[in-house]
Here is the input.
Amino acid sequence: MNEGKSGYDRMIDHMRRLPVSRRNVLRAAWVGPAAAALAACSKKVGSSASSSTAPTVGGSPAALEDELNVYNWAAYLNPKNLKAFESEYGIASTQDFYASNEELIAKLKGGAEGYDIIAPTGYAVEILAKSGLLTELDHAKIPNLANVDPQFLDTGFDPGNRFSAPKDWGTTGVGYLTDHVSEDITSWRQFFDLASTYSGKYTVLDSSPEVIGAALKMLGYSYNSLAQDEIDEATDALIGIKPDIASITSSNYRQMMQREESYVALGWNGDFFYVKKPHAYVIPSEGSEFWLDNWCIPAGATHPELAHEFINWILTPEHQATETGYTYYASCVPEAKPLLDSAISGDPAIYPSDDVVAKLETAIADPLFLQLRNDAWTKFKSA
Amino acid sequence: MRDGHAVAEPRALIVPAWGYYGAFLLVPLGFIVVYAFARTTGFFEVTFGLSGANFQRLWDPIYLKVYRATFSMALAGTLGCLAIGYPFAYWLGSRSHRRKTLLLLLIVVPFWTSILIRTYAWALLLAGDGPLSSLLQRLHLIGSELALLNTSKAVWIGLVYDYLPLMLFPLYVSIERMDRSLVEAARDLGLGKWRTFSRVTLPLTLPGVLTGGLLTFVPMTGEYVVPSILGGGKSALFGPIVGSQFLNAIDYPFGAAMALSLVAVLLVMIVVYVRVLGRRAEANLGAAL
Amino acid sequence: MSAIGATDAAARPDVPRRSDTLTDRILATWGALVYVFLYAPIVIVVLYAFNESRDVQVWDHLGLSYWSQTWRDPTIRSALVLSLWTAAANAVIATILGTAAALGLRNVGRRTRLGFDAFMYTALIVPEIVIAIASLLFFTTVGLPLGPIAIVLTHAVFNTSVVALICRTRLAGMDRTLEEAGADLGAARGERFRRVTLPLLSPAVLAGGLLAFTFSFDDVVLSTFVSAPGSTTLPLRVFSELRFGLSPKANVVATSMLGVTLTAILVAQHLLRRAERRAASTGVAGG
Here is the structure.
């Protein structure tokens, strides 16, 4: 559900995965310890000066509004956090959902109004900013931006963080049910090769950058290739496995896997945590995609002060930990990590080891990039 | 204004509706034409003009394939409706008068319910671990789980199911109005059952067939809901592809060009239909609707 | 829809059939099967709305637990409210425009009528997706906001045709002698309209309005393209719920929507048939 990008390249050799049984047990058990940890931490954090949650932080003289309208991916903001924010500030909130960055862009471009907070991925931030659809962030109102790991700031898609504050980051890869798939999938090549073995049990995201990118990486090309012939080759590879694909979906694949309607899925790391059956997640060895999602304020937002306040509020370690505990996507605030249950913080699917990323790329914001992939996508879908 | 008719509501009464159509139907459709000749530049910026670039792009095999797939799916769906609907309409035509109204009502009612619900019902029904699958498995008609959902077969089923009533109405009207004495005469002359059907009944009911065919084929080409729910995101039919130009790719001019080309083809079909049927076209359409 | 408004030709006496009992049986079976085909899916949806199992498509036992869960969901409640009032609003608009048009059309020349018909049928026959994107282009280019107002305005286009068609059929089937009698008796035009035409027409007007309401209430495609986030209609809510796969909430909402629509349709049908019968029984030839 998140296509991300935004650069941050580290080395990746090959992913190791935790033995499945241990992960299951630990995941089931994380609730208790994590809750206790959070409770303990909030006292700890509350007493520290830096990450303040006091309502009038930032010293903004403008009064805060009383309603926050969020437009977000589904299940991507912990309801507990939202409720806590509501009660702390005595405000009401609404949430609407989109299923892709393109949908977000399309709606905003189509004149949709009334949103205060959105969560676009990196390249979408650049597109929205260039289209004049974002409000510039007033950093004076978001002092907690200092909590964010500097590596995630000042990115290629938003130098100086004029428009965005990092939300979380993740990867795109392959998830599969280990009870049904006897092989250890470690590469895109394997993903493609095994399609006929598990025909009818494959799903891929309904998103051209990720899927075409996967094929491109398998063939040794860049995720962001703008070369027609490379993209054609990638599309043909995809068409080759299309008969084996049960469904092309960005929102239904975890349900399908949970119901064992599919065994192998091309998807985002955090989503696979919803699958309770024994499974594994892998970042293929040829490399894959790294994405960074961000909080932004659309241009013309009716409650900008509250929106700034919300961004500041959620960038504290404790709230970030609450988020990760719900979305299973890694936070950009390093101090959040120790607050998490070790099952989560130690899971390389959520927190890949530091040598991850040499071949992780992020999608670029280029009109040609989109158009090439749109045509290829149509070709793939009509095959 | 006053003539032989005593009734004389002012003609001006049609102006509000006509004006409404003008503003909210004609003008928007006009925008499609304007956008179809525009181009997308930069990040979703639209430059108006007289560019044929979109149509050139449409002439690519990728998109021609979309049209081919769409038309063959619509044709398959129409034929399915015809195959199911014709015998049914024939049977209905031979019921007693009182029964007919009730039976017709029973057809009409599902038709007026939401196409979304009816299509979703099939998603439920065709699910691999759903009721139909378990039933068929228990009857040993299939070996493992039903694998119909998320295929073009499922889309076909959905289309036939959703549009069957639209085929039925004109068929029924046509069969109803057929002069049965002609059929009787043919039988009296010694023509066998099938000969009678193909030589007498079918030609007589052809207007109904054509009308029903038109009324199902045309909407099927633009179907959006059915492929989305039953196709598993895999089918590249006109409806979802055009929709995604607006909702995802944000290439308004290209989407408009696609829409325009489809409308053009459909217009040709409708003109042919009207020519073939002559003046009866209007009567048939009106009666059916 | 020949069940609506149009009267059957004088009932033909059943012509005695030769042989063909086999054909008859086959056809009758076919007829029954078609009804099963048409209704089975709907029945399944309704059944599953009362399914108590955790896995949505595995049947467990009857129960109402998902009902409270569904209607407690604020997004679903607000979607219902939005659907109800947009459907009502555009039904009103469509009814006024359509009825007026049907009345006025009685008195126009052939070419005007054909011209108007072109628009009327276009709204009905052009695939909905085309009208949807045309409307999207229109609203965004002209600068009107997407959202509930856009939904109301867009739905009303199609529905005006629906109402106009129904009223026209009714008017055509209506006997003018009543109205002429009114004129002969010296009633002024307005009064004649109020006391003769309108009462005769009102079942069709009501039926048309109800049908317009249900079409709007159920509509997915138009709403998808002209709604703004924040204005989610009930069908859109179901549609987006379905993106995540089958869900018990969708079953419940679907069944509720069915209930609303069915009620409206049956009332509409009843009104129309009662009007037909009354017209027939007053001794005036139904035309």
Summary: Chain B touches chain C through 104 residues (CB under 8 Å). Confidence is low (pLDDT under 50) at residues 1-6 of chain B. The two ends of chain B are 30 Å apart (CA to CA). The longest strand of chain B covers residues 39-41.
